[in-house]
Write a structure and sequence with these properties.
The complex is a heterodimer of chains A (198) and B (132). Chain A has nine helices and no strands. Chain A is an all-alpha fold. Chain A is globular. Chain A starts with a helix and ends in a 14-residue tail after the last helix. Mean pLDDT of chain A is 81; it is low at 1-32. By secondary structure, chain B is an all-alpha fold. Helices cover 47% and strands 0% of the residues of chain B. In chain B, helix 1 packs across helix 6. Chain B is globular. Classes of the chains: A mainly alpha (198), B mainly alpha (132).
């Protein structure tokens, strides 16, 4: 538990309320940064972008789920500060990912997959089984690890290298989330190098 | 407790070997580890998420799990998910069903075999209840 307090407190210190508001205020800027060059990308791509749109829509589905998972955690009453602040900060990252993915899908001529109802996510994630803060963090860590591996796993399937890079950047964010959650739960580091995406 | 765990793993492993004819005893437990670190981003055993619920997938007709919104390509599939189809799917899903939406691959043949062996153990009985 020492690691939980120390790591989350340190992170929470770096993500004050003001910093969080500033971060959410720059979501569109994040999206713009991710999408830089996407006009040229779209023009340079072949006629069939449906495969890449399909991959991006699966990614968007993951981001919708992550946003709602953190919402369930934040609304559960099980998270105490500063852990709650960290969860809200990570949720903001996923909202930025969502915005960027939606914009990219639309720019490529696709239709972004819709978010489901919060209750649907609660059922799918068995939110009713969460009993304490560690349960919430464990759920979040499992989802983040899955997202890391999902993003890494689809990189070879992209027809466009710039989109592959976007997936890698998203995976990097999820890795940061997973690592901090893992540490907060007092769990050891991965036993060796190259443990993600193998 | 440790003995029970070992017995359970060995039992599952033997069952998997009987099913596939070639999977090592420890591969089911490794398949579970892989499932929980690779597949659970989109799947769970009993609930549809980004991907369909996977309990009972071995033996199921592709694209037909009730209540899941499949891609049109997968919804039109007619094959049954047996071990060979699932291993081919995890090798390159687009080669199995062009236009599918998963796109995720497991690069290593042993990893694919282990995940499929694990999934083969996650069976349904009539009415959708899980096997204890």
């Amino acid at each position: 538990m020492t690691t939980l307090i120390s790591s989350t407190a340190a992170l929470a210190g770096a993500t004050s309320r003001r910093a969080f508001m500033g971060h959410t205020g720059t979501l569109s800027a994040v999206a713009v940064a991710l999408l830089a060059g996407q006009d040229a990308m779209a023009q340079g791509m072949g006629a069939d972008t449906s495969k890449d749109v399909s991959i991006l829509n699966v990614a968007l589905g993951l981001e919708h789920e992550a946003i709602n998972a953190y919402q369930l955690g934040a609304g559960s009453g099980l998270l105490q500060k500063p852990v709650l602040d960290v969860a809200v900060r990570f949720q903001a990252d996923h909202k930025a990912h969502r915005d960027a993915l939606m914009a990219t899908i639309q720019k490529l001529g696709g239709t972004p997959v819709m978010e489901k109802k919060l209750d649907d996510y609660a059922k799918a994630l068995k939110a009713d089984t969460l009993r304490n803060q560690a349960d919430v963090l464990d759920l979040a860590a499992r989802l983040e690890l899955g997202a890391v591996n999902a993003y890494l796993g689809v990189i070879p399937a992209f027809g466009n290298k710039d989109l592959a890079k976007v997936a890698a950047r998203l995976a990097a964010d999820e890795t940061m989330h997973y690592t901090l959650l893992n540490n907060a739960l007092g769990r050891p580091l991965p036993t060796g190098a190259l443990s993600f995406g193998a | 407790m440790r003995g029970l765990h070992v017995a359970l793993v060995m039992g599952l492993g033997c069952a998997a070997a009987l099913h596939s004819g070639a999977v090592a005893a420890q591969s089911v437990s490794h398949g579970q580890v892989l499932f929980e670190s690779r597949c659970v981003a989109c799947h769970s055993l009993d609930e549809h998420r980004v991907g369909p619920a996977l309990r009972g997938v071995v033996g199921r007709v592709a694209g037909k799990a009730p209540g899941f919104a499949y891609s049109s390509a997968l919804a039109q599939s007619t094959h049954r998910w047996d071990v060979q189809h699932l291993q081919a799917w995890l090798t390159n899903p687009e080669a199995v069903v062009p236009g599918q939406a998963m796109n995720y691959r497991l690069d290593q043949p042993q990893d694919r075999a282990d995940v499929v062996a694990y999934l083969a153990q996650q069976r349904l009985v009539s009415g959708g209840r899980k096997v204890p």
